[in-house]
């Protein structure tokens, strides 16, 4: 699957041409027959149930899964994501289930990029406000928590630099205190009538505040993928009690989707006159 993701595929937009790819990590729960509850115990279930967590990383360039792995349903989201040299020059989009400053630091250390919503309980310290406030106001808020600034914005978007303190992973029984300087973007959402706040390490001369918000909106693609896998490729139709068959059916659903997308792309690109082309769905 990773090799397929390396093949030439969709091109990123001009604003993103300096990056190799945009990847999205998330997971979905697949339920099994209740008789397998001892081996695959479900969580957040009022009755006896069994299931696994299917962790998926989607690639924008490959237009589909880059990696897929199966985990115990009780596995924390952050443990399904392994950051390494592969992240270099790629943008990672994650939801709050993966929010961990340690992880963001590893992405940056491996020369990668990230965009995430910020947790409600996080209130980083403003280092500077680059856009959205006057110089006087910017100086006034420097060194104060972001929440104090947000209260006085009155619907204006801001682009700022903040400091986030965190603890490094434990090493030889000790945890080192560290801090990370990141970009914070607060964009007012008219529909929700509140600010959507993001942190990223992408420079503002590459993507402005609205661009960051729009880019994060692409994270919805992975939710649509999970919905498609379950509704069209029977990912959650696993009535057998045979564990090997269950695993085979999960992989069959995912691989069928990958193949159908590739065939669909070949059909679309094979015609000389696209305006005369018949409409094909990914299942035809």
TrEMBL record:
Gene3D superfamilies, per the entry: Transposase Inhibitor Protein From Tn5, Chain A, domain 1
Gene Ontology molecular function, alphabetical: DNA binding; transposase activity
Keywords carried by this UniProt record: DNA recombination, DNA-binding, Transposition
Keyword Metal-binding included in the entry's annotation: no
GO BP, one annotated term: DNA transposition
Signal peptide: none
Family assignment from sequence similarity: Belongs to the transposase 11 family.
The protein, known as: Mobile element protein
Organism per entry: Methanosarcina barkeri MS
């Amino acid at each position: 699957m990773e090799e397929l993701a390396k093949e030439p595929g969709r091109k990123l937009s001009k604003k993103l041409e300096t990056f190799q790819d945009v990847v999205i990590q998330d997971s979905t729960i697949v339920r099994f027959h209740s008789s397998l509850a001892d081996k695959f115990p479900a969580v957040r279930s009022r009755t006896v149930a069994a299931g696994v967590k299917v962790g998926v990383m989607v690639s924008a360039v490959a237009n589909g899964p880059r990696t897929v792995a199966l985990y115990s349903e009780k596995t924390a989201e952050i443990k399904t994501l392994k950051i390494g040299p592969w992240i270099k020059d790629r943008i990672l989009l994650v939801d709050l289930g993966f929010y961990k400053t340690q992880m963001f630091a590893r992405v940056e250390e491996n020369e990668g990029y990230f965009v995430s919503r910020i947790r409600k309980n996080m209130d980083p310290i403003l280092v500077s406000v680059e856009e959205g406030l006057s110089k006087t106001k910017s100086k006034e808020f420097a060194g104060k928590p972001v929440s104090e600034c947000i209260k006085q914005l009155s619907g204006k978007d801001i682009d700022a630099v903040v400091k986030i303190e965190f603890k490094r992973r434990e090493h030889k029984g000790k945890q080192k205190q560290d801090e990370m300087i990141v970009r914070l973007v607060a964009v007012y959402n008219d529909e929700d009538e509140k600010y959507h706040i993001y942190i990223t390490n992408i420079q503002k001369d590459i993507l402005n505040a609205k661009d960051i918000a729009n880019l994060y909106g692409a994270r919805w693609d992975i939710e649509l993928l999970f919905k498609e896998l379950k509704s069209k490729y029977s990912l959650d139709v696993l009535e057998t009690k045979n564990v090997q068959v269950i695993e085979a059916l999960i992989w069959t659903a995912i691989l069928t989707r990958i193949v159908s997308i590739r065939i669909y792309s070949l059909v679309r690109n094979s015609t000389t006159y696209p305006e005369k082309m018949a409409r094909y769905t990914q299942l035809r």
